UniProtKB/TrEMBL annotation:
FAD binds at residues 33-34, 234, 422. PANTHER family: AMINE OXIDASE (PTHR43563), AMINE OXIDASE [FLAVIN-CONTAINING] B (PTHR43563:SF1). Residues 13-445 form the Amine oxidase domain. Coiled coil: none annotated. This is Amine oxidase. InterPro entries: Amino_oxidase, FAD/NAD-bd_sf, Flavin_amine_oxidase, Flavin_MAO. The keyword Coiled coil does not apply. GO terms for molecular function: oxidoreductase activity. Belongs to the flavin monoamine oxidase family. Its cofactor is FAD. Keywords: Oxidoreductase. The keyword Oxidoreductase applies.
């Protein structure tokens, strides 16, 4: 049995950051990770040619101060997302080639409807306190309504409706009918407003680390050294008056407190003794993730740039909902990423590998031409079936959950504390939110321990 100050469960950015801050403060700590790799819902692979592919979370942007600070701490630079050239959108049977956030060549009625909706969403978001969205003046009313239902009463234009429904529900990798309006407003407010749901140039995330997300978490892991223990899925956490006993695949750790950073969708896979308080236990059952594929296609060069295109395209209902230029800072080779979420991702799950690849490449070729049919490399990651992620990138709450169980998101359960991007009041769902949560949890366990021993 290993006897330590603290035990952290999960080596995504939340767990890595928590363990890092605890070690830097002079505490003994171990970090148990179920996978045979670090990074959690980020996953960077390096190719033989020196380029990298981010198979999971990849982008950073304005207002994401904590991931910026972590990169500065380890000397990791960033570069801007490529946005020169036109984007493309395929809505309501029409094709739009445009520059900026939305295609202004859409009907004036659709553009006006989008403008009105964005102004209303911005106004609503301002009434949401990120630390406690369930206390917003209209929290209970908004938590009874789905995103789909709200759109029914606020979009009169079919293209505007299709665009808003797909953009927002796609972000949460689920159907619009599954999402609480309050949750959508909260997550938007946590990122600074609703404008991030469309576009790249004006989006919340407009840059990437040089070397991919792996450059950051490898640097953190190097400093942590043997603190990180891989292939150690935690089976149980038992707590008593003196501490916690954490049992993984073949290790038993005794610590004063534990920080659990695994996605909420799989937090219930751990056996807790005694059982967790009912609100936290029920929260685990009520915050699902969705379905998402992230597929990188590698070409000799980014041929779309020569064609005056940015690589960004959006086609709801397609086998490739979204495409984006994912080239490294050198711009070569050409890397185009397709991200397919929600219903379309679930449909892709039903296809054979060969048929899925064919469908995705065909969808991309419709936008960028036949060159897209023959990538040098095709790297597919189906996060939907990731055992230790529990589904898509961001957990969401269906109607009624946030107001009933939201206060349990960050509240410690005795000597068990919680981190992970879904527990962050700011930048919920982003990697920056995970870093913030790890730092908050590290400070929290130390503070609680000091209070308990004073």
């Amino acid at each position: 049995m290993v006897d330590l100050d603290y035990c952290v469960v999960g080596a995504g950015f939340a767990g890595l950051t928590a363990a890092l801050r605890l070690k830097q403060a002079g505490h003994s700590v171990t970090l148990l990770e179920a996978r045979d790799r670090i990074g959690g819902r980020t996953f960077t692979v390096n190719r033989d040619d020196g380029t990298w592919i981010d198979r999971g979370g990849a982008w950073i942007g304005p207002g994401q101060d904590r991931i910026d600070a972590l990169m500065e701490e380890f000397g990791i630079p960033s570069y801007k997302q490529y946005v020169d050239g036109d984007a493309m959108m395929f809505i309501d049977g029409k094709t739009y080639r445009y520059h900026g956030t939305i295609p202004m060549s859409m009907s004036p009625f659709a553009v006006a409807n989008l403008g009105v909706v964005f102004l209303e969403l911005t106004r609503m978001c301002k009434s949401i306190p990120p630390e406690a969205p369930w206390t917003a003046p209209k929290a209970h009313k908004w938590d009874q309504v789905t995103w789909a239902k709200w759109l029914d009463g606020n979009t009169l234009s079919t293209p505007a409706r299709q665009l808003l429904e797909s953009a927002v529900s796609g972000l949460y990798t689920s159907a619009a009918s599954e999402l609480s309006l309050l949750f959508c407003l909260y997550q938007m407010a946590a990122a600074g407003g609703p404008s991030f749901v469309l576009g790249v140039k004006d989006a919340a995330e407009d840059a990437r680390p040089v070397g991919g997300m792996g450059a950051i978490h490898r640097a953190v892991a190097a400093e942590l050294g043997d603190v990180v223990q891989l292939s150690q899925p935690v089976r149980s956490i038992a707590q008593d008056a003196e501490g916690v006993t954490v049992r993984s695949e073949d290790r038993v750790v005794r610590a004063r407190r534990a920080i659990v950073t695994v996605p909420i969708a799989i937090a219930s896979h751990i056996l807790y003794e005694p059982m967790l308080p009912v609100d936290r236990s029920f929260l685990h059952q009520r915050m699902p993730s969705g379905a998402v594929f992230k597929i990188a296609m590698v070409f000799d060069e980014p041929f779309w740039r020569a064609d005056g295109l940015s690589g960004q395209s959006f086609a709801p209902g397609s086998a490739a909902n979204l495409t984006i230029d994912s080239c490294t800072d050198t711009g070569s080779p050409g890397i185009l990423t397709a991200i397919t979420e929600g219903l379309e991702a679930r449909e892709l799950c039903k296809l054979s590998d060969a048929d899925r690849r064919k469908a995705v490449l065909a969808a991309v070729a419709e936008r960028f031409g036949d060159k897209a049919l023959s990538p040098l490399d095709y790297i597919e990651h189906n996060w939907t079936v990731e055992r230790y992620s529990g589904g898509g990138m961001i957990a969401h709450t269906p109607p009624g959950v946030l107001t009933e169980y939201g206060p349990a998101l960050r509240r410690p359960c005795g000597r068990i504390h919680w981190a992970g991007t879904e527990s962050s009041a700011l930048m919920y769902g982003f990697i920056d939110g995970a870093v913030r949560s790890g730092e908050r949890a590290a400070a929290e366990v130390v503070e609680h321990e000091a209070m308990a021993t004073s």
